[in-house]
């Protein structure tokens, strides 16, 4: 995973969906600074609050490196906009870019996230569809707050749903000079910010979302426990039925009567429908993201508190 801090504590993450132990055709991602700025601008204009913004990534593949050179957003539309055709919109945009000699090859898509809650069934299905059509397709996650998403710790689980690919942001010399000037101006403000003991509502929001996901996980656990009890009860009833049938056949045989006709046990005892486990797996991934986010944020604040306590004791 590649992350890059912006002036407003922003990070970007690129992930390519993979399955099993297959090697990804893309080993590195190079993204133009223009693309990063356009994604940030798109979110600031249309994605304030919990709104999610999405768009298309354009570029080309050079050996094992994916170069993202441009992008364009998906316009916000409601259910009332029945005439809007998303596929037709993409084709028209790429045709227009081709006319002005801009890279128009479809290499993936991007999406913003609200407090890191991007691990969802919809995103997984979308990336699967993209990568099924384009093998080198990637999804770029724009995160408003800086956090690290660790997805490589288990052989089976939400950690292996995506493969992290490093990103290299390429800027022109003019943009590098501008970034240097902005960094130089914010140096003094950053030094004073280190001494600020007040915390923003970021921790409160993260904890609230974490509690919501834990509640969802508890409900899924209750559903699974109910399913396990019903399955065990049915297995017991099936075993008792077979025992009674065996005893009755033994009695009929002793009386010289023919045994009972064969019956389809699977029709008499249909197993209960198991609850879907994919949603539980995705919720576990979201809980892991929130825990890592809270851990990083609180570790910084605890360091400030210990430093302030030491200064007060010295005085």
Automatic annotation (TrEMBL):
GO terms for biological process: formation of cytoplasmic translation initiation complex. It comes from the Eukaryota. Its main location: cytoplasm. Residues 8-20, 233-244 have a biased composition (Low complexity). PROSITE patterns: MPN. InterPro entries: eIF3h (IPR027524), eIF3h_C (IPR045810), JAMM/MPN+_dom (IPR000555), JAMM_MPN+_peptidase_M67A (IPR050242), MPN (IPR037518). Residues 1-20, 233-279 are annotated as: Disordered. Residues 29-168 form the MPN domain. It is found in: Cytoplasm. Pfam families: eIF3h_C, JAB. Component of the eukaryotic translation initiation factor 3 (eIF-3) complex, which is composed of 13 subunits: EIF3A, EIF3B, EIF3C, EIF3D, EIF3E, EIF3F, EIF3G, EIF3H, EIF3I, EIF3J, EIF3K, EIF3L and EIF3M. Component of the eukaryotic translation initiation factor 3 (eIF-3) complex, which is involved in protein synthesis of a specialized repertoire of mRNAs and, together with other initiation factors, stimulates binding of mRNA and methionyl-tRNAi to the 40S ribosome. The eIF-3 complex specifically targets and initiates translation of a subset of mRNAs involved in cell proliferation. PANTHER family: EUKARYOTIC TRANSLATION INITIATION FACTOR 3 -RELATED (PTHR10410). Belongs to the eIF-3 subunit H family. This is Eukaryotic translation initiation factor 3 subunit H. It comes from Astatotilapia calliptera (Eastern happy). The lineage of its organism: Eukaryota, Metazoa, Chordata, Craniata, Vertebrata.
């Amino acid at each position: 995973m590649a992350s890059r801090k912006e002036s407003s504590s922003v990070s970007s993450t690129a992930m390519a969906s993979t399955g099993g132990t297959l090697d990804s055709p893309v080993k590195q991602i190079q993204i133009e600074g223009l693309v990063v700025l356009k994604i940030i601008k798109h979110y600031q204009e249309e994605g304030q609050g919990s709104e999610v913004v999405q768009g298309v990534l354009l570029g080309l593949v050079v050996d094992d490196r994916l170069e993202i050179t441009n992008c364009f957003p998906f316009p916000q539309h409601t259910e009332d906009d029945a005439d809007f055709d998303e596929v037709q919109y993409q084709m028209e945009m790429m045709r227009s870019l081709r006319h002005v000699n801009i890279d128009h090859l479809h290499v993936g898509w991007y999406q913003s996230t609200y407090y890191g809650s991007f691990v969802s069934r919809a995103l997984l299905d979308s990336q699967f569809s993209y990568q099924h059509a384009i093998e080198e397709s990637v999804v770029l996650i724009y995160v408003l707050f800086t956090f690290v998403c660790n997805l490589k710790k288990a052989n089976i689980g939400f950690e292996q749903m995506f493969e992290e690919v490093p990103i290299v942001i390429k800027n022109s010399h003019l943009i590098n000079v501008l970034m240097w000037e902005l960094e130089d101006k914010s140096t003094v403000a950053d030094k004073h910010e280190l001494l600020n003991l007040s915390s923003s509502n970021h921790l409160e929001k993260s904890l609230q979302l974490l509690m919501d996901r834990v509640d969802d996980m508890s409900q899924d656990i209750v559903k699974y426990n109910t399913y396990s009890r019903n399955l065990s009860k049915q297995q017991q009833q099936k075993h008792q039925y077979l025992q009674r049938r065996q005893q009755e056949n033994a009695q009929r045989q002793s009386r010289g009567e023919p045994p009972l006709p064969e019956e389809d046990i699977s029709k008499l005892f249909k197993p209960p429908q198991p609850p879907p486990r994919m949603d539980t797996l995705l919720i576990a991934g979201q809980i892991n993201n929130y825990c890592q986010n809270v851990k990083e944020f609180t570790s910084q604040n605890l360091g400030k508190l210990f430093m302030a306590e030491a200064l007060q004791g010295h005085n």
